[in-house]
Amino acid sequence: QVQLAESGGGLVQAGDSLRLSCAASGRTFSSNAMAWFRQAPGKEREFVAAISWNGDITDYKDSVKGRFTISRDNAKNTVYLQMNSLKPEDTAVYYCAVKGGSYYYTPSRPVEEYEDWGQGTQVTVSP
Asked: What is the pLDDT averaged over residues 34-49?
């Protein structure tokens, strides 16, 4: 089983940028799609962005398109989320996840299709 550790969160002002990192250990995830989800207080965990095993295919939640960029470095077993032009509504705990199942290599949005999760990193955006 892979262990995932997110980092890079923090308290920023609206319009600022953050870069989240998710480092995997335990086994390689280079064949698996990866994703970022987020969960705000009192809300369900929601899809933010996903990337295919080789980085060729990406998918984004509509509200972050053009502001967030997901990328990965399989040699470092790390996936990133570059977040620009942050808004207060981006405030949440951000989680990275490894996709499982039959189509483990292609990105998708349902939470239940991801089998390994990190502990999360808090992102707070003040107005």
From this structure: 97
